[in-house]
Specification:
Length: 367
Amino acid sequence: MEENNLPSCCFKSVIMNLPQISLAVLRPLLFGALVSSTCHLGAQGQPPVVASTNPPVPAAVAPPIPDAPAVLPGNGLAAHDFFYAGESKIEKMQIVRDGKIVWSYTHPANGEISDATLYANGNILFAHQHGVTEINAAKQVVWNYDAPANTEIHTAQRIGRDHVLFIQNGNPALLKVVNTVTGVAEKEIVLPVGNPKSTHGQFRHARLTPAGTLLVAHMDLGRVSEYDAGGKEVWSVAVPGPWSATPLKNGNILVCDKNRAVREINPEGKTVWQFAPTDAPGYKLSSIQIASRLPNGNTLINNWFNQWSAKLDPVNTPVQAIEVTPDKQIVWTLRSWTPPADLGPSTIIQMLNEPVSSEGLKFGEIH
């Protein structure tokens, strides 16, 4: 309060002593009083804020966390020969040998490749959301099935020479076996789903077992189930949002779930081995879709990148796959996003040291 009265007091003193004060003395007093008033009168009795002539100091911006280490283990593209495909905006597939792409194919459609298998005869059977197609090594279509309206197909497997098994998402969802020679559906089984109206989220992966049953990942029901050829559920295990389920030679199954974990589950439903994102410090594992057990005992895990919801950062690209040992050591990583080997997002990585044959597979009486 004392500061607010100062200018008034100063002027009162000057006015009462005007006869005794010369003009030369008056000028500096008046000027000083004016300066004092300006300096002390601010908003609500506070000194005014004086604008700084210095530029503002920008806030520190933390550098982005790398999606993977700068130096990766293994020998890059040259480490393995493999067939590669994935869910991406372009339906493309490649074969890599000796570190180079030696064969590639782009399917002229607008779906996404969720399942593909390169067979020993050179043919490739792949499910691409809006249908199932088989091509030969010369890229000629040898068989095709278009998904009916309001349905999707994300998984398919050949049985012998004349049959293809696939799951058709829809209302109802159907497990179908079609004779590729006659075009006749020789088996149709209705499968349960969590939401009949949400076609896209029902199924992604299913595989025949050596016993002639079918292992199905119920993505929207949160479980993996095994069905016999009559459609009876003979075994199941709860799994949060399973994307894939693959039978192993030891009788266990390998499952990838929505929590980005890979689990090996035995017939009693117990997890006997697991690999989670916390087991891969320094790596960003965004979406694990399919994992496979290699002949050397290691596990190959793909790391899918979603082109529909994110834009790839060319200076910070994620790895497309990692190979881990039973004790969870990462011994090889795949990261190839630029020409001449731009592989794109990964869903299927099939090693070529073990040719896959459709002979010997069966589903009940169909073989």
